[in-house]
Amino acid sequence: MSVSNRGELVAEYAAGVPVRQLATRFNVHRGTVREIARQAGLAARRPELSDVIRQDAARLYAAGMTLAQVATQLGIESGHLRPLSPILARTQTRSSSSRAARV
């Protein structure tokens, strides 16, 4: 990748353009986008979930699904839900019977 393209990529990453969009635009892997940003001294970003996905995740989690099951149901990586688990645990009351049913 040329120096000028790297500069554009870094500037757009810093401006908040999604990694997937940058990877497509510059024809590189998402990991390459993150690595170039890291080399430029930029902090790694956590993927943000939409409010709709967060609400759906909370509903499914409250219904007794595990985080892995919720992620599968919503078609996202389970790692994207892990930062939400303390929030889900505080805001949703889960019965012990729903937990027992999962085991």
UniProtKB/TrEMBL annotation:
It comes from Luethyella okanaganae. This is Helix-turn-helix domain-containing protein. It comes from the Bacteria.
